Amino acid sequence: MSIDFNQGRWLNEPASWHADGTGLTMTTGEKTDFWRETYYGFTRDSGHFLAFPTGDSFTAQIRVEGEFRTLYDQAGLMVRIDEKRWVKTGVEFTDGEAFLSTVVTDGRSDWSVSQPFKKLEDFRIRVTVANGAMRIQASRDGRRWPLLRLAPFQAADRYEVGPAACTPERSGLIVRFSEFSIADAITTELHDLS
Length: 194
What we know:
Jelly Rolls, 7-stranded antiparallel β-sheet
């Protein structure tokens, strides 16, 4: 099911955003982020997240476009139960390059990065939640979806999912989201790349 971006609920609404029938464009605010405790010792819950309710299992995917150039610039999908249990996944700029990044948070955050493909100014991210697990896949073209991460994630009766973006070191990142959908959880085999 294709999603109307105007039907979502903002957590930390950005000062500048626009949604129409083709997508959502947002500009990040100053020093926005999602993180809990690990390594840095701080908790931040100030990133921009446009939330859509789901049931206990689903697959969501979205196309992300932007010019990620400053340390920790990031954009992608967030899945959230509450402020202590959430996942954000998508692009994150670190060590002078764009990587695909996932932060799984259950009281405290972890962080993993990978680089299955170099060009990350236009990509797609897919998240499937079912039976206490989260499957994260990424795609350059929307046809081939290699696995990015498989992680435990608390089973719940409901989740919120949607586009998220943060700029912990600045403001002014412009991100465009499109092709956003939420559907029943896919049941393909783990190594099926379709």
